[in-house]
Amino acid sequence: MPDSELRNRLLDLHAELERAPRVDPESRRLLEEMAEDIDALLERSDEADEGAEHASLRDRLTELVREFEEEHPSLATAVGRVATALANLGI
Fold first, then answer.
1. Which sign does the torsion angle of CA 70, 75, 77, 79 carry?
2. According to the model, what pLDDT value does residue 47 have?
3. Secondary-structure percent of the chain, ordered helix, strand, coil, rounded to 5
4. What is the pLDDT along the chain (91 residues), one digit of tens a residue?
5. Whose CA, among 26, 46, 51, 66, lies 20 to 30 Å from 60?
6. How many structural domains compose the chain?
7. What's the burial of 13, exposed, middle or buried (CB within 10 Å: 0-12/13-18/19+)?
8. pTM for the whole thing?
9. Is 23 left (phi over 0), alpha (psi -120 to 50) or beta?
10. What is the Cα–Cα distance from 84 to 18, expressed in whole angstroms?
11. What does the alpha-carbon distance between residue 48 and residue 36 come to, in Å, rounded to a whole number?
12. Rg of the Cα trace of the chain?
């Protein structure tokens, strides 16, 4: 999956976040921080030692999906799609 597909998934996530006004400020901050981290990772995707960073990012995405599944299923789906896009890129 090309980077452009991941970027599209991130745009979808931002759109879902905008449509979910009841998201508490801390969760909103975590989602925005995650998107920034992914953007930064894509910018430096050619660096050699990213394994630990990738694992941490995957773990954080998985935790966000769990947190949102009940209260914000559309956000959980959007975060899950981002996680899948990252996995398809080998991240």
1. negative
2. 54
3. 75, 0, 25
4. 456 777 788 788 778 777 877 778 887 787 788 778 777 777 766 554 556 666 777 787 788 788 878 778 888 888 888 888 878 877 7
5. 46
6. 1
7. buried
8. 0.65
9. beta
10. 21
11. 20
12. 13
Compute the distance between CA of residue 61 and CA of residue 46 in angstroms, rounded to an integer.
Answer: 22
What is the spatial distance between Cα 47 and Cα 45, in angstroms, rounded to a whole number? Answer: 6
pLDDT at 71: 79
Q: Look up tokens 């745009």; give the residue.
A: 11
Cβ atoms of 28 and 71 within 8 Å: the answer is no
Query: What would the DSSP string read from start to end of 27-66?
Result: HHHHHHHHHHHHHHHHHTTT-S--HHHHHHHHHHHHHHHH
Could you tell me which of 70, 90, 63 has the C-alpha nearest to residue 80?
A: 63
Q: Which domain holds residue 80?
A: 3-88
**85 near 11, Cβ under 8 Å?**
no
